[in-house]
Specification:
heterotrimer, A mainly alpha, B alpha+beta, C mainly alpha, B: Phosphorylase Kinase, domain 1, Transferase(Phosphotransferase), domain 1, three-stranded antiparallel beta sheet, 9 helices, C: mainly alpha, about 65% helix
């Protein structure tokens, strides 16, 4: 399984789980399906980009940083989207999104196969 | 003739010195006693270098040949062998600058370095056993650690003499597994006392009274050491669940921290919103 | 053999066999007079000194006990019962002496009149700070070398090496300040390198003679090797 695929798969799964935790906020419970879908897509995109980054650069530290940054970015975009009730949940979306992005970044570094041409570094 | 004390001591001191007449060596000083003879530092006149000369008590030509057969970085290379004018055999070998393992063990080396030394000893044992040579008298006094960290094992193939019982296997018929026993004893001597239980278990497995219960070979021993250093489960030790969890946690610490961070963030937000 | 002539010895009270049997070999052949003599020659004095130190005996008493011990030992074929796997012959013999002498000591104590005190001159060799066992070993070493040097002197005389002997005596056997090689060369009218060679020859030969003496009182190669280790500094 190459790294991009690893990123996409884990991004999807982790995004779905992260979305599912919206259940704990009763206000948004009705919209949970939409949240989970959105979160999964967000995760997949972050995973795709992290996986791509991991193919180019082999560094656990930077993988985490890039993943976290991407996670934060896309979480912001999602949080900034206009919402039916007019309430924005910046904190609830961006902070976990940041950490989930970091996890995705870490996993893409540690798992998956390298393409042949990349040099190994520690 | 009745000799007084000082004359007696003088005679005792001179009688043993080997006469290097007819060889290319000049005697410098005694370095140590071991195996079947005494080791001296000497100067090789032809090649203008210092060597170690081992003078054997008994004409045992076999020892030199045995060692010369083993070409390995941890076996001291033999330069030449010969016979002294008084009938004793000798062989000249590389003079090692370094310290004996017992002194090394008392020093400040880290656990990782000590394991490396043990590993080197096991590697040379594996090699020697594959060549059909058994050490039989492996003990700290027979291992040197050189100034650059290189490890040398000496005094091969000698029948263990009364007095090194602490490192000698209990069985009377010695074979490769007796060397494994000694290896375990060495490990205990070199690694600090309240050490990792996995390492203690590895050493204990080497030192089982019944030879068949020990590691079958030095290679098997090395495999377990590899597993220990990789953070994997060690064959010698059935670890309690708690320790297994610890090991898992240390190997996957980053991931666990990240997951913990996620959970923490979630909790904090949840409680913030609740009030 | 490191000396190059045949051992043609004659005209001396002590015979010099060219090959010495080990103790076990001698025992298996019935412990003949030669073998016994060798054991006695080496061990008489150490046993005597040991008894004196260990039991605080005077000169005459110690001699009697030593005599008694050896007589009993020979009579009861003590040497034949030596088991090399358990201890060195030296230790075996010392323990037997201890056993024998303490029996006799206990017996004689019961007989002694009260108030009897014997003063004896202090032994000039035995130092005060050594244990009886150390005294035994020390005297054993002393006797061993003493006998080997006697052998050496006879050998030198018989092979025409008087100068070798004299140089050795002047250099290695002297208690005072050692002469230099140059002085010795002058004294004997030979070159300095010759002095070096002679001394080297004598020391080699002494070593073999010590080994030969040891061979006659050890059970075999292994014990011989171990005992040899203890002798040299």
């Amino acid at each position: 399984m190459n790294k991009i695929l690893v990123g996409v798969v884990f991004g999807l799964v982790l995004g779905a789980i992260d979305g599912a935790t919206a259940w704990f906020t009763p206000d948004v419970r009705p919209m949970m399906t939409g949240i989970m879908v959105g979160s999964s897509i967000k995760g997949m995109i972050v995973g795709l980009l992290s996986g791509w980054f991991a193919r180019k650069v082999q560094s656990t530290k930077w993988g985490i940083v890039v993943g976290a940054a991407l996670g934060l970015l896309f979480a912001f975009l999602v949080a900034a989207m206009p919402s039916p009730g007019g309430k924005h949940y910046y904190l609830e979306i961006m902070l976990p999104g940041f950490v989930v992005g970091a996890i995705i970044g870490f996993l893409t570094q540690r798992l998956g196969t390298q393409p042949r041409s990349t040099t190994l570094s520690r | 003739m009745d000799l007084n004390d000082s004359v007696l001591d003088h005679l005792r001191a001179i009688g043993d010195a080997p006469d290097l007449e007819g060889t290319r060596y000049v005697l410098e000083q005694e370095i140590g006693r071991g195996g079947m003879g005494v080791v001296y530092a000497a100067h090789d006149r032809d090649l203008d270098r210092r060597v170690a000369l081992k003078v054997l008590d008994v004409a045992f030509a076999g020892e030199a040949r045995l060692i010369a057969r083993l070409e390995h970085p941890a076996v001291v290379p033999i330069y030449e062998s010969g016979v002294l004018s008084d009938g004793r055999s000798y062989y000249a070998m590389k003079l090692i600058a370094g310290e004996r393992l017992d002194r090394y063990a008392a020093g400040t080396a880290s656990q990782a370095e000590r394991i490396r030394v043990i590993r080197r000893i096991a590697e040379v044992l594996a090699f020697a056993h594959s060549e059909g040579v058994i050490h039989r008298d492996l003990k700290p006094q027979n291992v040197m650690v050189g100034e650059f960290g290189e490890v040398y094992v000496m005094d091969w193939g000698v029948e263990a003499i009364r007095g090194t019982a602490a490192y000698r296997a209990p069985e009377s018929q010695t074979d490769a597994r007796s060397d494994i026993y000694s290896l375990g004893a060495l490990m205990q001597a070199v690694l600090p006392a309240p050490g990792s239980p996995a390492l203690q278990a590895i050493a204990a497995k080497c030192m089982r009274t019944v030879p068949a219960e020990r590691y079958p070979s030095a290679t098997a021993f090395l495999a377990d050491i590899d597993r220990f250093e990789a953070g994997e489960r060690v064959e010698a030790w059935s670890e309690p669940l708690w320790h297994r969890v610890q090991r898992f946690a240390s190997r996957n610490s980053i991931l666990l921290w990240l997951l913990a961070a996620y959970a923490a963030v979630k909790f904090v937000i949840f409680f913030l919103r609740a009030f | 053999m490191p000396w190059d002539t045949d051992t043609a010895i004659g005209g001396n009270e002590r015979r010099f066999p060219s090959t010495q049997l080990t103790l076990l070999e001698a025992v298996s052949q019935g412990m003949d007079r030669d073998a016994l003599e060798r054991v006695l020659a080496l061990y008489w004095k150490p046993v005597y000194h040991f008894i004196r130190r260990r039991f605080g005996k005077g000169n005459e008493d110690a001699k009697d006990l030593a005599q008694g011990f050896f007589a009993t030992a020979i009579e009861r074929k003590f040497f034949e019962r030596f088991d090399p796997n358990r201890a060195s012959f030296r230790t075996y013999l010392r323990m037997a002496v201890e056993h024998f002498a303490s029996n006799e000591h206990a017996a004689s104590h019961r007989q002694k009149r009260s108030g009897e005190v014997v003063f004896e001159p202090v032994e000039e060799f035995a130092s005060e700070d050594l244990s009886p066992e150390q005294v035994f070993e020390r005297e054993w070493q002393r006797q061993l070398f003493g006998l080997a040097i006697d052998d050496l002197r006879i050998l030198c005389k018989d092979t025409g090496r008087e100068v070798h002997w004299l140089i050795f005596e002047a250099y290695d056997l002297t208690d005072d300040e050692r002469p230099s090689y140059a002085e010795l060369a002058r004294r004997f009218g030979i070159a300095e390198t010759t002095v070096t060679n002679y001394l080297a020859w004598v020391r080699r030969t002494l070593r073999s003679l010590v080994t030969e003496r040891m061979r006659g009182v050890t059970a075999g190669e292994r014990e011989l090797r171990e005992e040899m280790r203890r002798i040299w500094i």
